[in-house]
């Protein structure tokens, strides 16, 4: 026990001796070199003058930029035509302060150089401001605000590190931070490269697929379903290649992924069952062309027009502007009424009742005339009116007419037709029936009538 304690104390003493084994003379030399650098390069009159010049020019540029920015934005709004030119003018207006600051710094640096003053700090700051202005102008071409800001910050950080000479040490530092997975080594530098390259490739994949989609929209020889199918397959292929290239950039061996293929298949079978089912259903819908963008359909009580066929869902917009995102699987497993699948013509059946005392043949003729006068009712097939039964209170008629534009609604055209029927019936003395009941009283006995307070007789 005593020997073990003695050994532990000896190890601790050796460790402390190694940590404190520093040459005092070497330490003093490093401290003196640092002090000499600060006195010779930082705490000098020239550096103080340059710092004061930087602060003064920054304040002047900030004050002068505010009224100039408002005036420039007004000129761009009134005189510039075109979205891209207006956007470029707005970007220049937002960068007016650094542009003025750069102009003041350039003029001041030229004056100090003519007087043989040190301008090292001014030169570095001028280069950084110039890089920032150029990067912000080019990043303004990116439509998304988040990605534009991310690109600007990343590019300016690299430029700043390169200007001050710290880019090489920063790369070495990031490359030294990492861990090993088998024979491969994953470093922070590789991870950053993979994220950047993957982001750029994914953005390019979406941009190319969107460009292809806009081009295909103007291709008259392609059906809407075929356009969507080509767009979806192209987008999926581009995204797959972008992901594979990004993974390959950070040094991931794809042969190692084969080990996890079985587990991945089980995960897809259970966890992503609905996602895969909707994706496959979308491909089936695009291939058999049973549903296309622009079709008017009804499913599960939802009536509307198909606006988008996606990889996972289909967008259906109703007449009141509500947009439903319906999973593609429902179009395969449920009953769907497609009002424009093989023929856009749709027949409407509208029940109408008249009183028994009215002229039935005249009423039928008036209903047909009302249908013919309705603007959206087509002439072929012709509208008709049939006698379909004798009800308790009315003679039951049924108007049947056809329309060729169900996407414009069916309730509104029915309403127009019924308004015309109402007008014609009143003009020609055709009565609409009211509910009637015949009450028969049994003979042979008195009828007792009871009156209660507050109630009228009858």
UniProtKB/TrEMBL annotation:
Organism superkingdom: Bacteria
Compartment(s): Cell membrane
Membrane topology of this protein: Multi-pass membrane protein
One Gene Ontology CC term in the entry: plasma membrane
Membrane-spanning parts: 42-65, 88-115, 121-139, 146-168, 188-212, 233-260
Domain Mechanosensitive ion channel MscS C-terminal: 350-432
Keywords (A to Z) from UniProt: Cell membrane, Membrane, Transmembrane, Transmembrane helix
Ranges for domain Mechanosensitive ion channel MscS: 275-340
One of the Pfam families matching this protein, by short name: MS_channel_3rd
Residue intervals of the Mechanosensitive ion channel transmembrane helices 2/3 domain: 232-273
Major subcellular location class: membrane
Gene3D superfamilies membership: 1.10.287.1260, 2.30.30.60, 3.30.70.100
InterPro entries: LSM_dom_sf (IPR010920), MS_channel_1st (IPR049142), MS_channel_C (IPR049278), MscS-like_channel (IPR052702), MscS_beta-dom_sf (IPR023408), MscS_channel_2nd (IPR006685), MscS_channel_C_sf (IPR011066), MscS_channel_TM-2 (IPR011014)
GO molecular function, one term: mechanosensitive monoatomic ion channel activity
Family per record: Belongs to the MscS (TC 1.A.23) family.
Protein name stated in the entry: Mechanosensitive ion channel
């Amino acid at each position: 026990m005593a020997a073990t304690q003695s050994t532990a104390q000896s190890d601790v003493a050796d460790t402390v001796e190694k940590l404190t084994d520093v040459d005092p003379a070497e330490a003093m030399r490093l401290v003196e070199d640092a002090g000499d650098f600060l006195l010779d390069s930082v705490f000098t009159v020239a550096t103080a003058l340059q710092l004061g010049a930087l602060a003064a020019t920054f304040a002047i540029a900030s004050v002068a930029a505010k009224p100039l920015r408002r005036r420039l934005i007004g000129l761009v709004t009134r005189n510039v035509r075109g979205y891209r030119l207006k956007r470029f003018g707005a970007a220049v207006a937002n960068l007016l302060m650094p542009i003025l600051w750069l102009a003041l710094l350039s003029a001041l640096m030229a004056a100090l150089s003519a007087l043989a003053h040190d301008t090292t700090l001014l030169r570095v700051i001028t280069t950084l401001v110039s890089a920032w202005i150029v990067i912000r102008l080019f990043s303004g071409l990116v439509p998304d605000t988040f990605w534009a800001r991310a690109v600007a910050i990343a590019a300016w950080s690299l430029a700043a590190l390169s200007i001050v000479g710290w880019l090489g040490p920063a790369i070495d530092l990031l490359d030294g931070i990492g861990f090993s997975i088998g024979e491969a080594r994953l470093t922070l530098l590789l991870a950053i490269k993979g994220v950047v390259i993957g982001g750029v490739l994914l953005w390019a994949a979406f941009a190319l697929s969107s460009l292809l989609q806009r081009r295909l929209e103007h291709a008259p020889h392609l059906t809407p379903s075929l356009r969507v199918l080509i767009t979806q397959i192209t987008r999926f292929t581009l995204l797959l290649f972008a992901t594979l290239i990004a993974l390959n950039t950070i040094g991931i061996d794809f042969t190692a992924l084969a080990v996890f293929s079985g587990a991945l298949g089980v995960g897809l079978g259970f966890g992503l069952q609905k996602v895969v089912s909707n994706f496959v259903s979308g491909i089936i819908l695009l291939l058999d062309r049973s549903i296309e963008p622009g079709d008017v359909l009804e499913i599960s009580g939802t009536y509307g027009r198909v606006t988008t066929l996606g990889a996972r869902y289909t967008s259906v917009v109703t007449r009141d502007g509500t947009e439903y995102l319906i999973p593609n699987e429902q179009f395969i497993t449920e009953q769907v009424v497609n009002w424009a699948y093989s023929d856009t013509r749709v027949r409407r059946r509208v029940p109408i009742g008249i009183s028994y005392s009215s002229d039935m043949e005249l009423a039928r003729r008036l209903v047909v005339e009302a249908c013919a006068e309705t603007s959206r009712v087509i002439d072929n097939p012709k509208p008709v009116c049939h006698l379909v039964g004798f009800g308790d209170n009315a003679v039951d008629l049924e108007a049947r007419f056809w329309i060729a534009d169900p996407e414009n609604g069916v309730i509104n055209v029915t309403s127009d037709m019924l308004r015309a029927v109402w007008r014609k019936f009143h003009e020609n003395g055709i009565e609409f029936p009211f509910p009637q009941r015949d009450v028969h009283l049994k003979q042979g006995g008195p009828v007792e009538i009871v009156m209660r307070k507050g109630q009228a007789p009858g």
